[in-house]
Amino acid sequence: MSMWWSLHLRREAASVPLARRLLMGTMETAGVDPDVSYDLSVALSEACANAVEHGGDAVPPEGAAGAYRVTAYLDGEKCHIEVADSGPGFVPAAQPASDTAEHGRGLYLIQELADHVHFGNKPGGRGGTVISFDKILKWREDTPLVTA
After folding, report:
1. Among 21, 42, 29, 43, residue whose Cα is nearest residue 140
2. Which residues pair with 121 in a beta bridge?
3. 88, 132 in Cβ contact below 8 A?
4. Which residue from 1, 39, 50, 84 has the fewest beta carbons nearer than 10 Å?
């Protein structure tokens, strides 16, 4: 089984739970194990929150909120998610956030929850960050969409 979806979202806080709910609904419908779905939804929420907070100009033109893109692929035994924005690009932190910090732990969470993670800049030098991550899927026993 293979399926994918892509969203073009405004850089507003309300877009984060929208993306998360769509992913959770897709995973539930496909029959993905709830623990795996939860891990991916938390990682997606962190990536989207980063795009909302850091993914555009400091002062958008004419009051526009800007936008970012979320794409998810369920293909066989793996889910691949990509979040791309049009901000200044990815700049690695000089040091990881402390355990008590209120900001700066999102990328660490994504790395802990996913099997393979890549943080980088959009190709072509036009600015923007791309966060992509994969996770091997486990399926519920009653999953009708998985072929034997």
Report:
1. 29
2. 129
3. no
4. 1
Residues 60 and 135: their CA atoms lie apart, in Å, by: 34
pTM: 0.85
- Going residue by residue through the chain, which has 148 residues, state the pLDDT in tens, using 9 for 90 and above: 788 999 999 999 999 999 999 999 999 999 999 999 999 999 999 999 999 998 876 555 554 558 999 999 998 899 999 999 988 887 766 556 666 656 668 889 999 999 999 998 887 767 789 999 999 999 988 776 665 5
Q: What type of residue sits at position 71?
A: T
- Compute the distance between CA of residue 134 and CA of residue 80 in angstroms, rounded to an integer: 4
Q: Residue 53: which H helix or E strand, with range?
A: helix 34-54
Nearest to 80 by CA among 135, 3, 39, 37: 135
Residues in Cβ contact with 59 at an 8 Å cutoff, skipping those fewer than 6 apart = none
